[in-house]
Structures are given as C-alpha cells and as structure tokens.
Design goal:
Layout: E1 44-48, E2 54-58, H1 76-129, E3 146-148, E4 151-153
Antiparallel strand pairs: 1-2, 3-4
Length: about 150
C-alpha cells in the first residue's frame, strides 16, 4: 500500500489520566419526623401457629384486583371472518344461478333455431317435391321427337 522507500514513523500516543475530585463535606440534616395518625385504627388479628405459638399483628387488607371487563364470547375477528364467508357463499350461489340461467337460455335459443330449421326445411321440401298436380307455371308437352341424320324434326 505504501511505497517501500517511504518511511513511516509510528505516532506517539499521549496518555491522559483522570483523577476523581472529592466533594466537600456536606452537612446532612435529617428530615423532620411528622407523626401521621391513620384515619381508622386497623383491626388486630391473632393467629395460633401449629406449634402453639401465637402471632399477633395488624390485619392487612389485600388489594383486590380490578374487575375484569367481560369479553364477548366470540372475537370480532371471528365474526368478521364468518360474515366474509357468508358473503362469499352468497356471491358463489348467485354466480351459480347466473351461470345456470345462461346455460338454460343458451339451450332454449338452440332449440328455437333447430325448430326453425326443421319447419323451414319442411316448407322448402314441400315446395320442391310438391305433392299433387301443378298449380301454375309453364306446361311442357312432351311428344315423340324424330331425329333424322342428326337433325331434330318435331
């Protein structure tokens, strides 16, 4: 990293020592004692231990925990999930009805087209094949024609 011909002198480190400074002696005065009378005199309780000794002292009222707020039987998240599922099922049911309606409509239109083709085809068949005699048009009488030497003599 450094060229070989350059010389580096190691840097000198200065050492600084810190010494604590003692505080001047302070005059400590005790806080005045103020007698405090309790509002009510607590009840004195005595307990007899199993070995026969009696212990007497003030009864301590244990702090009662704050009443727990009643939680609903079902969490809001569960209600929201259930409502979402009901909505999804309703949408799926509606889509199922819609698709079945479209399928039924398609089948109906297909049947109408087939019926029209059958009726129209029958009408054309009756017109072409025509049952009965001619009711108009050109009448052609066919008679015996004579061909002599490839000439028609009629």
């Amino acid at each position: 990293m450094y060229p070989e011909h350059a010389r580096r002198v190691p840097a000198e480190r200065s050492v600084t020592a810190y010494h604590p400074t003692p505080l001047p002696p302070a005059v400590v005065q005790p806080a005045p004692v103020v007698p405090v009378q309790p509002g009510t005199v607590p009840a004195v309780a005595s307990i007899v231990l199993p070995d026969g000794r009696t212990v007497t002292g003030y009864a301590i009222d244990h702090p009662q925990p704050a009443p727990v707020v009643a939680k609903p039987a079902v969490s809001r998240t569960a209600v929201n999930v259930a409502l979402g599922g009901v909505g999804f099922l309703a949408v799926c049911g509606g889509l199922l009805l819609l698709t079945s309606f479209i399928a039924a409509l398609t089948a109906f239109v297909t049947q109408l087209i087939i019926l029209a083709a059958v009726v129209f085809g029958g009408w054309i068949a009756v017109q072409v094949l025509g049952a009965g005699g001619h009711r108009g048009g050109t009448t052609v009488n066919i008679r015996r024609a004579v061909f002599k030497r490839n000439h028609f003599h009629g």
